[in-house]
Amino acid sequence: MRDGSEERAGGGRPVVLYVAGAAFLFVIAVVVAGSFVRPDPLTFIPTPIAPQPPVDGFVVDTVTIDARDGSQWVHFDFDKRSAVDGPLAGWDLALNRYHVIVNGGTGYPGAGGAIAIGVPWEAVTEAPASGYATTERALEDGPATPGLERWYRYGFFSHLLEPKDETYVIRTAEGRYAKLRILSYYCPQATPGCMTLVYGYQADGSRRLTG
Question: pTM (2 decimals)?
Fold first, then answer.
């Protein structure tokens, strides 16, 4: 025999069931509402193509590469600190929308490689001596550089690509080194395809990644 301590409502159903049902509906409403709220991503204006004279030491810079045209790869050269007009001009990174690869691997002329460090950008003071991944497959066959191809998190509700809090060390086509962070994937008006990079490039050939 049950006593009267258990509250009941609506034909003997415990009140707790109604509370749980209401909480569930509230969570569903929040999730649905969140799917219609798109946050504003960090955006940057593309940097004009303007190759710079070579430097002798360590240089830090930020560049926004316009890779919106999915029909072609855009090439970036750390030594020139700029995007360059085509692969014949020499390049270290190639970008196509959200894809980023290095100039190294079978079928590529450079000695490039990439490695994810898992250390804050400011704390990376020396490039690793080994462990670099090179690019797999040719440009026309959907290439990828392991460690670089998953630089982002995908927002299920926002449908935006958010850069991971990750530092990459790049071995350039000439065998020099740079440290790299990806800041954003968006041009103004939240248009995708503008990759903004902050990097520190060591031009003297050493593995030292600090000024």
Answer: 0.82
